[in-house]
Amino acid sequence: MPIFKAIYKKLSRKWHPHAITVGKPVEMGELCDQISLISTVSRPDAKAALEALGMVMGSFMNSGRSVHVDGLGTFYYTCISNGQGVDTEKEVNASQITGTRVRFVPEFTRKGKVVTRGLISSNLTWTNIKSVSTLDGTGESSTPGEEGGGEEEGGGGSMG
After folding, report:
1. What is the distance in angstroms between the CA of the first residue and the CA of the last residue of the chain?
2. To the nearest 5 percent, what fractions of the chain are helix, strand and coil?
3. With contact defined as beta carbons under 8 Å apart, do 149 and 16 qualify?
4. What are the C-alpha distances in Å from 97 to residues 41, 62, 80, 100, 134?
5. 126-153 pLDDT, tens per residue?
6. Do 58 and 43 contact (CB within 8 A), yes or no?
7. Which terminus of the chain has a smaller tally of CB atoms within 10 A, N or C?
8. Which segments within 2-107 are labelled E, that is strand?
9. How much is the pTM?
């Protein structure tokens, strides 16, 4: 169940839902445990494959290609040139690039006008943080620390 909280956005002067994460991130060990439970791959083999995936994807993207992983999506680079613009196309060069980001587009299927994303469940139900008693993902009861009205735009989206 994905969780949201209310935040106040100064620009619109309105309250909006804001997606948040709770608890600690799922780490490699837990991913490998789950993969080994639902496949014929052992935990060490799952870990080796996932570690190799990152290296291989990086190698392909470093050569200028995007990487599509069935059921997951497509990864590709974008570059940033903050404040480094020039007046003509001929002046554009690599020294203007101030940063590189990895972008991700989730897998999707299209049936007519309906688009379904692979990582988004078809029976997704959003829950307000104020109605959740178990925030850390372990099943242990805890009390949300968010009793106030929200936060201004630009605040953190992660709890835990």
Report:
1. 16
2. 25, 30, 45
3. no
4. 41, 15, 6, 8, 44
5. 888 888 765 555 555 444 444 334 444 4
6. no
7. N
8. 3-9, 14-20, 67-69, 73-80, 99-106
9. 0.65
